[in-house]
What does this fold into?
Amino acid sequence: MSYISLSEKDRKEMLDTIGISSVDELFRSIPDNLKIKQKLNVPEALTEPELARKIEEIANQNSYHHFLSFLGAGAYSHVIPSVVDYLSSRGEFLSPYTPYQPEVSQGTLQIIFEFQTLICQLTGMDIANASLYDGASGAAEAALMAHRLKSRSKILVAKSIHPQYRDVIQTYTRNLDLSVEEIAYSDRGEVDYEDLNKKLDEDTSAVLIQSPNFFGVIEQLDNISALTHERQALSVVVVAEPVSLGILEAPGNLGADIVTGEGQSFGLPLSFGGPYLGFMACQKEFVRQFPGRIAGETKDVDGKRGFVLTLSTREQHIRRERATSNICTNQAWCALRATIFMELLGKKGLKELAWQNLQKAHYTLDKITQIKGIKTRFMGVCFNEFVLEFEKPWADIDTFLQEKGIIGGLSFEDSYPELANCVLVCVTESHTKEDIDRFVGHLKEACQ
Amino acid sequence: MIREPLIFEISDSGKKGFLLPKLDVPVIDDILKDIPSREEIDGFPEVSETEVVRHFTRLSQKNFCIDLGFYPLGSCTMKYNPKINEKLASTNEFLRSHPEASEELTQGSLKILKITEELLMNITGMDAYTLQPSAGAQGELVGMLLIRACLEERGNPRKIVLIPDSAHGTNPSSAHVCGYRVQEIKSNESGTVDVEDLTKNMTEDVAALMVTNPNTLGIFETDIKKISEIVHAKGGFVYMDGANMNALIGMCKPGDMGVDVIHLNLHKTFSTPHGGGGPGSGPVGVKEELEPYLPFPIIEIKNGIFHLNIKRPKSIGRVRGFHGNFLVNLKAMVYILSLGPGGLKEISEVAVLNSNYIRKSLENDYHLKYETPTLHECVFSDKIQKKDGINNIDIAKRLIDYDVHPPTMSFPLIVQGALMIEPTETESKRDLDRFIEAMKQIAQESKNNPEVLKNAPHVSYVRRLDETSAARNSVLRWHKNRNDKEQES
It folds into this structure.
């Protein structure tokens, strides 16, 4: 393939204009000893049909999609309305960049403004940004933001936060004068209130919790936030499954100061982990330390409403090393898909979606816990994920289920060694009653 | 053009845009009886599918984009985005691949990532790659973390990172997030790194030099090997910002220049769509010495089977969830395979030809601060037009009336009133000539009719917007209780 639009005649004319005889002369500033003598060691060019065959051949080496799967753990299988794919594939959305020139970017800017509004409504916060990379880096940015606001020496991170999010928080904070301590979880699978009470002191900038947490359990946000505020620390709530906000009270109404999370559930396919969508929202008093792009409303010279990127004095292109974050390019197109998804489902649809996830997960849980040899590990109330503990080795059960075409869930072997033989199961609206009953049936056989 | 209200302003109670199948399991009551829940999301829109489709179609028409026309935004490499990349990235087997599924069930996805890493290694002459970083700035952060981790192991992380004054704003910001103090290095009169200033500042307190090559002026750092030697002699590392790699593909390799770490922007050089501001992908390539510190997971191959390794004791850790922006990496891989060695070299040849054609054609109309030869982009300034009271923003806004996207103006900071123009290799001569003609006319207008520039743009959906009041009033979301009249105006 070639995507060059010049003819030989064009090239000749252009070289004449420049006053040279060959393109090589334009590269004279590169010293000879750096110039490559041979051609690049990459395969010879392929045409479209050849590429399609090659990619198909590689794609066929994936087999996950043949299984009935109950994997979640921060990447959720939800319905994607065809309108989302159709609209988001328009070149007007795919092929511009960051809206630096607002007069010719009103589409993107208005969509960011609507996205910010939707995120504020979901989370119960005052302001939201245009997006961050993903839930994990969002949690890290929230930790950094809280640290800038409070400048104390430690942050507390619930051990029930997604293990990968905790990893990323560690990576982002490793060179700062800041210690990251973990808060234990209780038998209910919630934040251990006593442990929090003990560790939350005047050196604590913020408490980070996830709800529903990695075990699927809904945290008691109001109690935790109240205790956090008593000690003048900031309450940061991470949401990895935003569908839950269709039915759960907004974290902002339960005391959260910063809410961040993963928006993949809203119209983004699993895609082996990316691109996904980080979002972040906060109370307006914290805006000066807020990271990322923000769109705002204004007027043009004729008084007509329009939108621009605003409050950019927080950002790297103006503030350089004193910026609130180094983020530049974010996940704008993913935010577009999430905006289409949220607006299409709307008030009724998102609530129904959340309700169906809740009902189907609890139906499944109810059936499974009647099986001898399986019990729920935690007593807390869950949303669409829950943790099961098996009497028999999970490896054997997993093998049995896979033979029946089922991926039963995610083992905790690596992430929580103390939860030996425990498995995280996710049920969404994408599972029919028939799927669930088949899963339960085979689990029963496996446990016999 | 049709005025498009906010979705919230056309919302009407009871409308639905999408239906889920009926719940097919028996309802359990009171699951949430002890949990704070909500009846509805206050303010969330209620619209039909038709309304949603019209809303976004109309909004799309208010965007300028590459598919519509010339977009010479400097240092952003706004090249054509091939459609085959999009098509192959929507292959079902990839879309439905769960990031936590076992290696055994995702060999195809892992293979895509491994092939992409190897292609990038061969193109840039580096020894290993991570595809984890989500965009260039995250790549910079990863690169600096790698350097710091390696220096720590040697016994001293050091304190300072040197950055030329022509650099993009993310460079100092990324160094800062990594805990380093930034020391600026002056550019000399040719617009390149002042080797004397570098030598003076390159002490054993310096962890690294972050250098963009070619730099943001489009100038190749001819002394790059010497620069690397100066940095290495004091035990520092050379970090290359690869944002401008479009000038070098197939011509030379950063790995031969003494570069220890580089990030690439797949959404620039490797044609993946910019998406209105992402998703990008910012792979980081390193020399052998820094390989042990790469973020996990690392993809390894044993007996023809791909594995994910997270047990890497020296690793800086994880920098984002799962496996990076997988689909973006896939699109870049398809792009490289579609071009092959000849097509890749042609990228830089034509990108540099196009840029120099523009430079030559406009050199009598606009001021060029540096006369040094340039590669893929050139930076003019508004110095000549300033005499008539016209600045770079006026020029940029007037270009909109000529159906061209304005160039980059926010940097490099060393050129006041900058107009950074990067045409890329995919433009036709006809489009280049239209742009040149527009720029020449604007140069004339600034003398004969400056008002038409100051009031530009004239034909866009909105005219010049008041950015100052946007920052002062900070209306950052829609509110339902705001005065309806105000929303309507």
